[in-house]
Specification:
single chain, 208 residues, 14 helices, globular, mainly alpha
Length: 208
């Protein structure tokens, strides 16, 4: 596997993503899950995973946070963001997210489809003092678990969660819940399962 950027920049990139998330959640009160969706939407995540030097090593966490907010909301003036070196659980969540993205070569979007902000945050107590390789192995184990059928069929169809939601009329949050196994699709209302199968043009049993 070829990484998008050299390992000498990894610690800086991971620190900056950690500080970005720390500032957004603890300084400005954003919901972590929502801010990470903004991170994907803004294009900043893609710039980092593609190894753009300006984003990997040229911008601080504060600047990344400001760009995410400015890009998504089209603010006329850049918000005032104060850089922090605090090593909070939120910081660690952003740090391990950036570290794992580099290590695995997966996109930020792919990682966050599999593991939520709350799940990452919940691993802080057991992993933040562990060797980084241990944390990466735990992340790998989570990511390599067999995908549920809905997610597998959706990906085979080349659809994003958003596109499936538009096609089926099933809410995006509901689809996310089924794919993360927060809800059991086998207990879903019949009309929801039918709409999902129609959107995917597959048999109902293919996604149960």
């Amino acid at each position: 596997m070829t990484n998008a950027y050299d390992a000498i920049y990894l610690n800086k990139a991971a620190r900056n993503v950690g500080n970005m998330l720390h500032d957004a959640v603890l300084e400005y009160g954003y919901d972590g899950e929502e801010f990470l969706r903004m991170f994907l939407q803004s294009g900043v995540a893609e710039q980092i995973e593609n190894g753009n030097p300006k984003y990997v090593a040229g911008r601080s966490g504060a600047e990344l946070c400001a760009e995410v907010v400015e890009t998504v909301y089209r603010l006329e003036t850049e918000p005032i963001v104060i850089e922090t070196q605090s090593r909070s659980d939120v910081y660690w969540t952003g740090w391990i997210l950036a570290y794992y993205q580099w290590y695995s070569g997966r996109s930020f979007r792919n990682i966050l489809e599999e593991v939520s902000y709350e799940e990452l945050l919940g691993r802080y107590d057991t992993l933040h003092e562990a060797d980084v390789q241990k944390a990466l192995e735990v992340m790998d184990a989570h990511m390599n678990q067999s995908e549920n059928r809905l997610k597998k069929v959706r990906r085979q169809c080349g659809l994003t969660q958003e596109e499936l939601s538009e096609r089926s009329g099933v809410s995006l949050n509901t689809i996310r819940a089924y794919e993360r196994k927060a809800k059991d699709i086998r207990k879903a209302q019949v009309d929801i399962v039918v709409r999902l199968s129609d959107g995917l043009q597959c048999r109902i049993e293919d996604i149960l």
